[in-house]
Write a structure and sequence with these properties.
Distance between the termini: 31 Å
Strand order of the largest sheet: 1-20-19-18-17
Strand content: over 45%
CATH topology: Neuraminidase
CATH class: Mainly Beta
CATH architecture: 6 Propeller
Radius of gyration: 17 Å
Number of strands: 23
Helix content: under 10%
Bound molecules: calcium ion
Amino acid sequence: MIAAGLALAGSAVLVSSSLVSSAAPAQTQPPPETRVPVLSATIVARYPHDRTAFTEGLLWHDGALYESTGQERQSDVRRVSLADGKILAKARIDPAQFGEGLALWKDQLVSLTWHDGIAHRWDVRTLKPKGQNRYTGEGWGLTSDGVSLLQSDGSSDIIVRDPLTLAERKRVAVTIDGRPLRDINELEYVHGALLANVWHTGFLVRIDPKTGKVGAVIDLRPLVAEVAATDREAVLNGIAWDAKADRLFVTGKYWPTLFEIKIAAEPR
Ligand SMILES: [Ca+2]
């Protein structure tokens, strides 16, 4: 069952789906009851975002955003200007494929596809194709810890892959209060932790990539409320980190706004 709030397997703390009106998307539901700290975030800045972009992957590199988008016939990988949201360069993905997560590995971008088991490689400067890798299972989010690629597939697993071949090295199960947390979506490796969107929720989770344990829930419902999307699939998705300036960016599918945020150190 896809229920409101964070989908905790076998959990008694789920917000009952009967409480969810059809006009209230799941991503406006309150945080789950959890022993994990729930942190707020302040909005540092707002930037324009392409409201036709079905955002699946987002990262920052060398002064620009890189974004991958989904939906058949509309999937691409693009370089985007932060200041005005303009697309500076774009590489189209095979129209039969549904683009998914995006990561940088050295001078190449690696982008996933949802059901095709194909990872595309792109020259990060020219966005010219540089080859493909095969993998099994669904492709959702992708990031790099500098050693491996870390991938989500909609389950509670983080799949650790060889960055050159996409071969699976190991899996880490994401848990919150000891229970699996599924629907892990877009990823970003930040300060040694893994930040992740949880599909159809207004939250990020901060995961210890070694143990899979969620150490914090970040409540971004104020951003969801500000965007006030009417499309049920226009959910919070997309996390990018500018490591040099320590800036954290988030956006959503079809969102008109990309936010720079700062996560609170302590719960209120
Ligand atoms: Ca990302």
